[in-house]
Amino acid sequence: MAKLHSRKGGSSRSRPPMVTKAPEWSDVSKEELEKTIMKLHDTGMSPSRIGLTLRDQYGVPNVKLVIGNSITGFLRDNNALADIPEDLTNLMRKALHVRKHIKANKKDVHNKRALQLTENKIRRMVKYYHDSGRMAPDWTYSPETAEILIS
Prior knowledge:
Blueprint: H1 30-42, H2 47-57, H3 63-67, H4 71-77, H5 86-104, H6 109-132, H7 143-150
């Protein structure tokens, strides 16, 4: 896939082979894994952090092969998903940091452009989440609301 804001082409990469069942060495049961995911979510971890913790500390190679659903899908089924998606939250956090940097360094034109690109990604992602029904249709991005939500 090509880059979003440049005329450069993307690079190809290898992908892991399609696997339909959990490996034999993984001995985690479905119920035990579901309890662990909910426990980690209750401590305030994001879905990506939960996946890393399950991989590194619990030895779960792929949650989807055990549960039959992704971590985000499992949390959605249990009504435990956050109001604002994780990728959108990360982009808003990045925009806030760049905005704070620009306020201190007014002549930094490169980061002004980076802020424009980041906020454009945010608006595009908000539009996607509106269309998919993941977020309320009247929710709009503004730096003030982002600062309130992220802080």
